[in-house]
UniProtKB/TrEMBL annotation, chains A, B:
<dbReference type="GO" id="GO:0009853">
    <property type="term" value="P:photorespiration"/>
</dbReference>
<dbReference type="GO" id="GO:0009507">
    <property type="term" value="C:chloroplast"/>
</dbReference>
<dbReference type="GO" id="GO:0046872">
    <property type="term" value="F:metal ion binding"/>
</dbReference>
<feature type="binding site">
    <location>
        <position position="45"/>
    </location>
    <ligand>
        <name>Mg(2+)</name>
    </ligand>
</feature>
<dbReference type="GO" id="GO:0008967">
    <property type="term" value="F:phosphoglycolate phosphatase activity"/>
</dbReference>
<dbReference type="InterPro" id="IPR006349">
    <property type="entry name" value="PGP_euk"/>
</dbReference>
<keyword id="KW-0378">Hydrolase</keyword>
<feature type="binding site">
    <location>
        <position position="266"/>
    </location>
    <ligand>
        <name>Mg(2+)</name>
    </ligand>
</feature>
<dbReference type="Pfam" id="PF13344">
    <property type="entry name" value="Hydrolase_6"/>
</dbReference>
<feature type="binding site">
    <location>
        <position position="241"/>
    </location>
    <ligand>
        <name>substrate</name>
    </ligand>
</feature>
<keyword id="KW-0601">Photorespiration</keyword>
<dbReference type="InterPro" id="IPR036412">
    <property type="entry name" value="HAD-like_sf"/>
</dbReference>
<keyword id="KW-0479">Metal-binding</keyword>
<comment type="similarity">
    <text>Belongs to the HAD-like hydrolase superfamily. CbbY/CbbZ/Gph/YieH family.</text>
</comment>
<protein>
    <recommendedName>
        <fullName>Phosphoglycolate phosphatase</fullName>
        <ecNumber>3.1.3.18</ecNumber>
    </recommendedName>
</protein>
<feature type="active site" description="Proton donor">
    <location>
        <position position="47"/>
    </location>
</feature>
<feature type="binding site">
    <location>
        <position position="47"/>
    </location>
    <ligand>
        <name>Mg(2+)</name>
    </ligand>
</feature>
Length: 325, 325
């Protein structure tokens, strides 16, 4: 029997909160085997699942190796837009995990791909409220990005007869997590969206907070996106989770039905909803934004198929079960 | 006949957009007299009505003198929280208009008064995302404010094992227009609201944009307030227009029924809605955020009783009428 509770018997003892329902099941040494048997690819969120800030969550590396040894495909689907796929691959390597760029689907990449599949003209420019990752992905897709970290130190002076000028050729504003947010960027993005005809307003994601450092949560892209909603009175096109826009690219890459995929994440309103929207099995981990008491909230509408403390439970529970057999 | 159109005859030629309805009436040399006869106090918004940025709108000074000469009370109800009532009085003086502090109802004052009437303990502190005006009004009301302009130059570093600390004794976060908005302030306000039990989230107002300079609009408090909504997933208590919270103080000061008041403003969703919520006559001026084409939008729900180009039309149309008689 494992510390996570649940039974190893023939009945579904793991369905913790709602009797016979097939959701909100605590992952146990019994049902983990069912889960692993039913899935060919695991889609992992990163912040709060693989790492917190720059610190790897305990047991992740061994668990990813274990899943690969079972022949499972691994994919990393992150709403964090501050890095490009290349930068994410480097971050994985620095933490001792080998992940190729092709296995990473970041919302920075999704923003660039959204423009691409919608035939956004390369003659137009893209203003970025967010990190280097978005600018890098835009460049790889053939687009000219403005803003980003470069505008983080710019200031404005509200003086009479001063006119804040913006590029009339900006056809899209991409907003993601931006720790260098300032009034200059807010005015620039607002002017483009309000005054450039047809200018798109694209949000990488709307996560309210995230584990930008290992010890605590910080305002996420949802903060900056909401700020631009507030000033423009417009709603964005969201390309990150829970939007399934990224799933199209993932399906192009891997020839696996979404019903044979499991989305593993720490957020109900992005990760789990994304998995459900796409038709995947879903596994909530409690190592990030969502804590155990959130599961007890009666007003909660989004319910994962399974939940557990952390990713490494997948290996631990499976091996416990094997040892028992 | 005046350049603003409309008729001087006995029929209601000025009802421009909807025939016989009593709203959306273009102010004319005919109906201006009815308006002036029916009103004992004029409530003016400031940005986009009295001035744009630091530049007085043409003819305002003479028109205020004219209204005073008719015995009308004048009150200035502004959502701009960057200044205290004292600072507003000084701004009026610097523009050649004598207005006392008692005639000014700013949302900075409203925020402090909200705490006062709700018996917010003076032992607790208030974190401010916004200008000096809020801190000044809090101090006058006996409260200790933190943040504001002082935190405008603070930066954060998202380093492993660093803990961003906040004062656990903060019992309210007040958010207003903040041209020095940064990630430090966003994290501070977010932590207080999310982690300090019972911490209030107060918005001075939610104006999307405003004439922070005379030549163009800039993101308003609605931008910063939305940012904190985005990170906290909470909705604020709004004390500025269109909330009628400030009206209670105004009624205490002036013994005039709201049906004998006229609210003059440039925003439908704050000024005109405030006037309507309070039972005042409403006059929209097109010298600020709302332009003539916005009046033609069929989805528009908020309709003023009257509209005109600018405040000075009140005097010009009245005198034209008198000259014709």
């Amino acid at each position: 029997m494992t510390a996570s509770g649940g039974g190893g018997g023939g009945t579904n003892d793991g369905a913790a909160t709602n009797g016979g329902d097939r959701w909100d099941q605590l992952l146990t040494s019994y049902n983990v085997k069912q889960l692993l048997d039913s899935v060919d690819a695991f889609l992992f969120d990163c912040d709060g699942v693989i790492w917190r800030g720059d610190v790897l969550i305990d047991g992740v590396s061994e668990t990813l190796d274990f899943l690969r040894s079972l022949g499972k495909k691994l994919v990393f689907v992150t709403n964090n837009s501050t890095k490009s796929r290349k930068q994410y691959s480097q971050k994985f390597h620095s933490l001792g995990i080998i992940v190729s760029e092709d296995e990473i689907f970041s919302s920075s990449f999704a923003a660039a791909m959204y423009l691409k599949v919608n035939n956004f003209s390369e003659e137009k420019k893209v203003y970025v409220i967010g990190g280097e990752g978005i600018l890098d992905e835009l460049k790889l897709a053939g687009y000219t990005g403005l803003g980003g970290p470069d505008d983080g130190k710019k200031t404005v002076e509200l003086k009479p007869n001063c006119l804040f000028d913006h590029d009339k050729n900006v056809g899209a504003v991409v907003v993601g997590l931006d720790p260098n947010i300032n009034y200059y960027k807010l005015q620039y993005g607002t002017l483009c969206i309000r005054e450039n005809p047809g200018c798109l307003f694209i949000a990488t994601n709307r996560d309210s907070v995230g584990h930008m450092t290992n010890l605590q949560e910080w305002p996420g892209a949802g903060c900056m996106v909401a700020a631009i909603c507030g000033s423009t009175e417009k709603e964005p096109i969201v390309v990150g989770k829970p939007s399934t826009f990224m799933m199209n690219f993932l399906l192009q890459k891997f020839n696996i039905s979404t019903s044979r995929m499991c989305m593993v994440g720490d957020r109900l309103d992005t990760d789990i909803l994304f998995g459900q929207n796409a038709g995947c099995t879903t596994l909530l981990v409690l190592s990030g934004v969502t804590n155990a008491s959130a599961l007890e909230d009666p007003s909660r509408k989004i319910r994962p198929d399974y939940y557990t403390n952390k990713v490494s439970d997948l290996k631990r529970l499976f091996l416990n079960d094997s040892q028992q057999v």
